[in-house]
Amino acid sequence: MGKERLSLYDTTLRDGQQTQGVQFSTAEKLRIAAALDALGIDYIEGGWPGANPTDSAFFDEVPKTRATLTAFGMTKRAGRSAANDEVLAAVLNAGTAAVCLVGKTHDFHVTTALGITLEENIANIAASVSHLVGQGREALFDAEHFFDGYKANAPYALDCLRAALEAGARWIVLCDTNGGTLPHEIGQIVRDVIENGVPGDRLGIHTHNDTETAVAGSLAAIMAGARQVQGTLNGLGERCGNANLTALIPTLLLKAPYKDKFEIGVTDEALAGLTRTSRMLDDILNRVPQKQVAYVGASAFAHKAGLHASAILKDPTTYEHVDPALMGNRRVVPMSNQAGQSNLRRRLGEMGLEVDKSEPALARILDRVKELESEGYSYDTAQASFELLARDELGLLPEFFEVKRYRVTVERRKNKYNKMVSLSEAVVVVKVDGEKKLSVSESMDEAGNDRGPVNALSKALAKDLGRYQEAIDDMRLVDFKVRITQGGTEAVTRVIIDSEDGQGRRWATVGVSANIVDASFEALLDAVRWKLVRDGETGAA
Amino acid sequence: MGKERLSLYDTTLRDGQQTQGVQFSTAEKLRIAAALDALGIDYIEGGWPGANPTDSAFFDEVPKTRATLTAFGMTKRAGRSAANDEVLAAVLNAGTAAVCLVGKTHDFHVTTALGITLEENIANIAASVSHLVGQGREALFDAEHFFDGYKANAPYALDCLRAALEAGARWIVLCDTNGGTLPHEIGQIVRDVIENGVPGDRLGIHTHNDTETAVAGSLAAIMAGARQVQGTLNGLGERCGNANLTALIPTLLLKAPYKDKFEIGVTDEALAGLTRTSRMLDDILNRVPQKQVAYVGASAFAHKAGLHASAILKDPTTYEHVDPALMGNRRVVPMSNQAGQSNLRRRLGEMGLEVDKSEPALARILDRVKELESEGYSYDTAQASFELLARDELGLLPEFFEVKRYRVTVERRKNKYNKMVSLSEAVVVVKVDGEKKLSVSESMDEAGNDRGPVNALSKALAKDLGRYQEAIDDMRLVDFKVRITQGGTEAVTRVIIDSEDGQGRRWATVGVSANIVDASFEALLDAVRWKLVRDGETGAA
């Protein structure tokens, strides 16, 4: 027997944008749409054309996708025809092959929020869907508050669905808009809906995570017969977010009974890019990726318990439900325990450093990491600093140059126009190839704005490094994170700096000090040294 | 018909400590245990006595709790009697009323990981549980890998459970150790186990979140008959974490059918402290609380969509599945939309500022917030800076003092012992009551350590503020967060500073600048000004 097709519908660009603090630019939307298309999503909901300039621009600029591009809107308002509703017209004007319209199915919302009769609402649904179909579009109907509506007035809620279905909607999407419906109820109500005449292969499910069960609710709906599932990357969305496609997709591909019953548009190859896609979205949002998230989190396969870590080395299936590599993720065995050395050798191997089992530096590296981590360093993200530390112990780190001293001044005072302005100045003294070089830079950019002391330091450090100058000219600082690792008066600051170069490499380095400028300088120095290592520079003669 | 009692078992202090990056001190464990006890948890698992000094010290120091304090350990090893197993002896020596022992139930793990026969394993389980009961302890048996074991060899897995039950275990806890079992399987297997002779009121469930369904899996087990549920606060735990009690507890208390069928130890009053308890744990972990988490997240009741926000103002049940106040959480309606003004008045009211509807400053406050947020400010957390901004527009902010200028120098060079050392020095010039005051401080603390430029600035600013001196003497900086809000060369830095005073108040302020020192200074200034407002100081004569 062949597998049934399950349709994946992504709403990261619409419902995902309802996340508090999230506001995508058009360029970011285009980047996310390309990633969704590469992943193998069937429908990409791009936004609500006409609702804001960003969404409208997205539909103007988006290139052809393999996925069906979908515009979102709402059913026509009462008192005008579908053809004369300018809100609906703007949605159609986006010219997408598919259009998804949200409409009411909960009697309470029809009468209180819309203030129209139950019959008028049904007529609006039918007329709106007919209008889409008449324009040659694939129509989807988002049944808002469906589960609450069904519990309040099942016959009416079902009548709304049937109106959309009979008007030609390809998909009827059951939305748990407020997120309060538990999985067992979702399963039961989906079964009821199918028994009442809406075929499962026309039914979609749209859940929210307000009880932390959005993924389970979606799975329950699929098990009950729904054949489209809606969600977002990383579970973005209004309030607690939507069903997390980043968790759902691996379950559908890897877990019984789903993997045996269904096929989805995501290939094994695309699945192996899922971790990268998830991190890319966090990167766009300038968020630190959550470590403990299912399948793709940095801790999802981290084995901290001593008994687990030692068993994992014998056989990973002892404490892993799936292979992390399937999602492009990786196993983490903390270096502090007995599993440390072989794990360390694996990490070094990934950096191109093949080290023999008997190498005594291995133990020294582990000791140094342990000691530095107790001082506030963290090498989970700062892989480049870790590599430098390891190279140092292995005797594979050239001494490129020596920093003799630096000084930074930050001043804020009135300028000649009686306006408060700030300015930083940095002096860095280095010794390269036996020659002492003094460099000074200030924090003013070309537009006359103060960019701060770390900027001034970074410029002074990179200003004259003799024969290394060319190698570091294409480096730039792209992110900067600071964390106080101990509170109170003993506060210690950890700075993580992300750098990029012209070859598209991106690397993270760490510095720790009670002095934030000094911690930043340490991380900057590591960034420069790693770049010189990677570019194959050799040390002082 | 009376409600059935459901037992809540917390393992934040044991499995929660397996979270990557989490390492509780004994003092922190004591603080968490007190919070769990106040919440109404039935069992508090404190750790593994003997496994490390922190866990042992916890059991020595923990005061009497209403909850049953539980020590964790493992079943005796083969080849020795339970009485002669020193690992088990250390667990019993903690003297807790209850002891939970983990043991194997998956044949593969017995033969590969333990390397003993299936019969020996069953004998070990029985002997260990009997030993606990013989010592007058309440015994719990954690059936490791039970669901995988049941799928591989059901008769053997069931025999293990029966051995524990017959030896006198009060609870048999079915553990989904690797986290790969989906809710529908958990429900089915729990039903099978009950049919095979283990009564539901002796059965517990312990799930992990590796497929993002740990909460749903726990609910499925309860629905199938299990009567104890294990989890952790904020879903801490190995890999992706354990079932999140912070999400489970509100569902059990507020949602059908659970609220009608069961009673748990958490009162309505304790539930109203849940948000605070969740934030306290993040505070101990020095983590930024996740906003999108169910029930207790800062965004859990944030209504960003325009249609939602306006409906919420008419009737909150339109877009809220439960009342946020029940968990001590609050509704957030972003100020940028039409719902803004009434929401703003509510927020001001909470700060003790009763403002009339017709007050023209309301619109100005909203405009200023909108403009500043577009520059990188964020008032979600920095409530104190928000209050100052509002007071300023309302004419309720005295001008306490004026900052004329400041200068900070950070230097790093060799000292007389040829060691690289760093030092910061700050000069702040303020005008108080018409008098100009120059203050200088350095960043060296009493132990001779450099505490950085923000420390030096903070000390110089607080050194001489004339008649305000007494009010600010009990302030201290307790946390400091930095975020680049725009990447690249146009980088803008946002600094959030948390301050505390001797009266236990804690407040957050924000500063934004391309210059991190300047952003810090702005946040420091706001911190001082808020403190002066709160202490009822008046402005310059």
UniProtKB/TrEMBL annotation, chains A, B:
It catalyses: pyruvate + acetyl-CoA + H2O = (3R)-citramalate + CoA + H(+). Keywords: Acyltransferase, Amino-acid biosynthesis, Branched-chain amino acid biosynthesis, Isoleucine biosynthesis, Transferase. Its EC number is 2.3.3.21. Residues 6-272 form the Pyruvate carboxyltransferase domain. GO terms for biological process: isoleucine biosynthetic process; L-leucine biosynthetic process. Pathway: Amino-acid biosynthesis; L-isoleucine biosynthesis; 2-oxobutanoate from pyruvate: step 1/3. SUPFAM superfamilies: 2-isopropylmalate synthase LeuA, allosteric (dimerisation) domain (SSF110921), Aldolase (SSF51569). It is an enzyme of class 2 (transferase). GO terms for molecular function: (R)-citramalate synthase activity; 2-isopropylmalate synthase activity. Belongs to the alpha-IPM synthase/homocitrate synthase family. This is Citramalate synthase.
